[in-house]
């Protein structure tokens, strides 16, 4: 195991321009208010290879990401530059928004826990939420004494050091002292928290292993790991006196559970008619039988299970799977809270959205969908691709495929279908097939599909990518013919999966970020897409309700967010602290308002922008810069008092208005303030208008002073002031005092502006600072002679 110091010394990190950000204007069929999204081209053919002087990147073989939007990439270098050969062209990189790190490379850099050895190739890479990378690969035979029997393995690359989690022929597997792996499943499974699930075979004769005890399933981590199940050794939940025989690749969740498709040894009551099934197993050796060959299938009229596809698992311990019955009828099932239920069955009618139709299958004939089984969301929702019987319900060969979503406890619904319905971003187009499907942990769906286009400009039968949710909203991510890093992409694809909850590779996280490949004639690029979120909710709604936002995604630190558009929007702000990339309120159409709440601090990395017809109200804090070209109104301008804090700079344009209300003169109790305030930790660059009103029966008295604006970095003058009328014996004096802007009430007949008890030259200076030369000069305040000009004559008149 290498130390972090060793790791740092052998890896190179590139910062700054290693990634490029491109803004795409998308014509979104169902989301006209979410028109711009960020597409980040991470690596493209012809790029200088990160941390490999003279080498050129050529090909992305695959890419995965985590909840933080960090990306693991495995790909190839061009063998035409930098001395790269066929033995050194494979590499793995880790990308973050600020850097690209070379993690491993074939033929160089070495391999963790394998002195003198080098990698030969990489099968797959996964990245956990804490940034650690799990890598399935092979070592080069020869260097470091590596042989064909000990070249395969799973490695982990982490900030605390790199390590081998499992390797054939070397090191005892957890729970098998003296044993050794003979083979490992090629499927890589890593949970969001970094647990790696593996199935494999042991070397006969090592650690007492025989041909009757050489298969198993493990959870691997640093340090150590645990044996979850083993052929002929561990008990079989739900089948007394039985023994496991073999295991297919396991699904795994962060609660240290795995779900496996396994076979049993035929002995006693176990025969070839009931020797396979699905189990959910715990890391303590317990578990539950999910479904077994020969058992009655829920909802299938007494028919029995015959064959299974590898199951899906979520963090709640729910399991979903597809299977065929004894009559070879395919179906999809789900198990929640210990109860199995039928989701959909072929030849049974009741196809959501297609009256009179029948399902014929739930797998992908061309094999492009990984594992061909359903996807399972964190709330138990099941997503699958289905094929319909032609003829029944008017189905033809042009419209016989679709994607269906079955929420837990609710009827299923048709999401999208070939040959019918609009295609977001592609007028006059229709889908012809669905090749890649992913569902993230919060239920959004990424779809890779091919198109038929009636009348240009898109080529026929080329693949694009769309995001959608259960509401029917759809957003185009990538379309054939799009320019990516100066090249025209002919197609796009991505890794499917269920958002990582089952340990399978994930390309689509809970923030709607999707990492995908753009395919060119010259190779392929890695691209990260981040949706911009817009308010799609009702005229009045809550920020915290995810359904009110684009695709049902609650805003997070990666998002540019917009409130405003063609419909009015009055939004109650978050109840707890929230971070976003950028926030815009308003625009050029209907009024939009965000009301801050105490405790709901809003962090904006790239600023909060109040646009025309937009308004920021309430009481709360904005962490970041605020630009006001609309209205800022602490509290509720019509009937409430509040305080808005800006932990940053505040800039008000000539079109901006700061609205304040005064309901009293005492703000000594922060829990019960009597007048509005704006507090800025940085500089307040002021223009536009200050608009002040009185509320209720409050009338300011002579001597009252209202510190309405504080800016620790200083401030300048508003363009205009609109102050409420006062009784004839008193006037307003706008008096900046250090870092605070005060509104003072003074006697109309007195020229003692500095309050010294005498009228002298010092009062002239105070008057000039307050009216003639400083901020706050208005005719209603300083024009004592009524001649329309504020000058020395006004001072004499006072």
How would you concisely characterize the structure shown here?
The protein is mostly beta strands. Helix content is 4%, strand content 42%. The protein is built from four helices and 63 strands.
Detailed description of the structure:
This protein has 798 residues and is mainly β. Helices cover 4% and strands 42% of the residues. It has 4 helices and 63 strands. The strands form 12 sheets. An 8-stranded parallel sheet has the order 42-44-47-50-53-56-59-61, with no helix packed on it. It has an 8-stranded mixed sheet with strand order 45-48-51-54-57-60-63-62. Strands 41-43-46-49-52-55-58 form a 7-stranded parallel sheet, with no helix packed on it. A hairpin with an 8-residue loop joins strand 33 and strand 34 (462-468). The longest helix has 12 residues, at 761-772. The protein is elongated, with a radius of gyration of 33 Å. It starts with a helix and ends with a helix.
Any descriptors?
42% strand; mainly beta; 798 residues; 8-stranded parallel beta sheet; 8-stranded mixed beta sheet
How many DSSP helices?
A: 4
What topology, given as strand order, has the largest sheet?
42-44-47-50-53-56-59-61
How is the main sheet built?
A: 8 strands, parallel
Strand content: 35-45%
Mean pLDDT reading? 88
Percent helix, as a range, is under 10%
- Overall geometry comes to elongated
Q: Please give the alpha-carbon distance between the first and last residues.
A: 85 Å
Q: Using the CA coordinates, give the radius of gyration.
A: 33 Å
Unreliable spans are: 1-36, 365-371, 772-780
Number of strands: 63
Structural class: mainly beta
């Amino acid at each position: 195991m290498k130390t972090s110091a060793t790791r740092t010394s052998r890896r190179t990190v590139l910062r700054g321009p290693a990634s490029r950000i491109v803004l795409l204007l998308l014509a979104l069929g169902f989301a006209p208010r979410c028109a711009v999204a960020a597409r980040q081209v991470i690596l493209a053919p012809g790029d200088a290879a990160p941390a490999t002087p003279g080498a050129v990147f050529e090909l992305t073989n695959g890419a995965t990401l985590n909840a933080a939007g960090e990306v693991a990439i495995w790909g190839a270098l061009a063998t035409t530059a930098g001395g790269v050969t066929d033995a050194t062209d494979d590499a793995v990189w880790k990308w973050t928004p600020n850097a690209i790190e070379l993690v491993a490379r074939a033929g160089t850099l070495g391999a963790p826990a394998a002195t003198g050895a080098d990698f030969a190739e990489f099968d797959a890479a996964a990245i956990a939420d804490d940034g650690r990378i799990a890598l399935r690969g092979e070592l080069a035979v020869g260097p470091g004494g590596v042989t064909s029997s000990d070249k395969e393995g799973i490695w982990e690359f982490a900030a605390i050091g790199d390590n081998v989690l499992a390797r054939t022929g070397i090191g005892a597997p957890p729970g098998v002292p003296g044993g050794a792996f003979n083979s490992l499943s090629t499927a890589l499974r890593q949970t969001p928290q970094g647990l790696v699930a593996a199935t494999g075979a042991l070397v006969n004769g090592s650690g007492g292993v025989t041909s009757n005890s050489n298969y198993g399933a493990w959870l691997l981590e640093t340090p150590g790991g645990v044996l979850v199940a083993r052929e002929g050794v561990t008990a079989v939940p739900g089948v007394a006196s039985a023994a496991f025989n073999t295991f297919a690749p396991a699904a795994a969740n962060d609660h240290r559970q795995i779900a496996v498709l396994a076979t049993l040894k035929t002995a006693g009551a176990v025969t070839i008619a009931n020797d396979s099934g699905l189990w959910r197993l715990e890391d303590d050796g317990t578990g539950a039988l999910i479904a077994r060959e020969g058992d009655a299938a829920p909802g299938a009229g007494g028919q029995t299970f015959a064959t299974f596809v590898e199951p899906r698992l979520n963090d709640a311990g729910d399991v979903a799977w597809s299977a065929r019955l004894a009559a070879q009828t395919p179906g999809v099932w789900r198990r929640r809270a210990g109860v199995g239920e039928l989701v959909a069955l072929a030849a049974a009618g009741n196809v959501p959205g297609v009256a009179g139709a029948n399902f014929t299958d739930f797998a992908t004939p061309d094999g492009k969908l990984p594992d061909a089984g359903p996807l399972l969301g964190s709330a138990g929702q099941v997503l699958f691709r289905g094929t319909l019987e032609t003829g029944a319900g008017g189905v033809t060969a042009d419209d016989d495929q679709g994607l269906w979503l079955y929420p837990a406890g609710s009827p299923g619904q048709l999401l999208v279908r070939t040959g019918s319905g609009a295609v977001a971003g592609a007028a006059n187009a229709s889908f012809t097939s669905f090749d890649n499907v992913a569902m993230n942990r919060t239920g959004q769906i990424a779809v890779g599909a091919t198109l038929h286009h009636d009348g240009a400009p898109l080529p026929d039968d080329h693949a694009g990518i769309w995001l959608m949710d259960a509401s029917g909203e759809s957003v185009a991510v990538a379309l054939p013919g799009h320019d990516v890093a100066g090249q025209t992409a002919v197609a796009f694809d991505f890794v499917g999966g269920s958002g990582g909850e089952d340990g399978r590779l994930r390309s689509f996280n809970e923030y709607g970020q999707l990492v995908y490949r753009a395919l060119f004639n010259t190779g392929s690029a890695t691209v990260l897409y981040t949706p911009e979120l817009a308010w799609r909710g009702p005229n009045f709604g809550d920020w915290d309700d995810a359904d009110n936002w684009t695709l049902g995604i609650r805003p997070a630190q990666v998002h540019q967010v917009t409130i405003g558009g063609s419909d009015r929007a009055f939004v109650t702000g978050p109840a707890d602290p929230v971070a976003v990339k950028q926030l815009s309120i308003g625009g050029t159409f209907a009024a939009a308002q965000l009301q801050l709440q105490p405790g709901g601090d809003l962090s904006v990395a790239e600023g909060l922008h109040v646009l025309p017809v937009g308004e920021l109200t309430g009481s709360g804090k904005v962490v970041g810069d605020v630009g006001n070209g609309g209205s800022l109104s602490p509290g509720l301008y019509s009937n409430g008092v509040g305080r808005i804090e800006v932990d940053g700079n505040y800039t008000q344009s000539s079109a901006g208005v700061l609205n304040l209300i005064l309901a009293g003169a005492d703000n000594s109790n922060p829990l019960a303030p009597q007048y509005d305030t704006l507090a800025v930790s940085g500089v307040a660059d002021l223009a536009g208008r200050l608009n002040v009103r009185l509320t209720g029966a409050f009338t300011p008295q002579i001597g009252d002073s209202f510190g309405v604006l504080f800016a620790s970095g200083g401030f300048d003058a508003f363009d205009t002031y609109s102050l409420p009328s006062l009784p004839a014996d008193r006037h307003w004096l706008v008096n900046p005092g250090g870092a605070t802007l005060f509104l003072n009430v003074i006697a109309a007949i007195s020229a003692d502006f500095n309050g010294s008890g005498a009228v002298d030259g010092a009062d002239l200076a105070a008057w000039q600072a307050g009216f003639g030369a400083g901020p706050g000069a208005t005719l209603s305040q300083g024009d004592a002679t009524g001649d329309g000009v504020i000058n020395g004559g006004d001072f004499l008149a006072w």
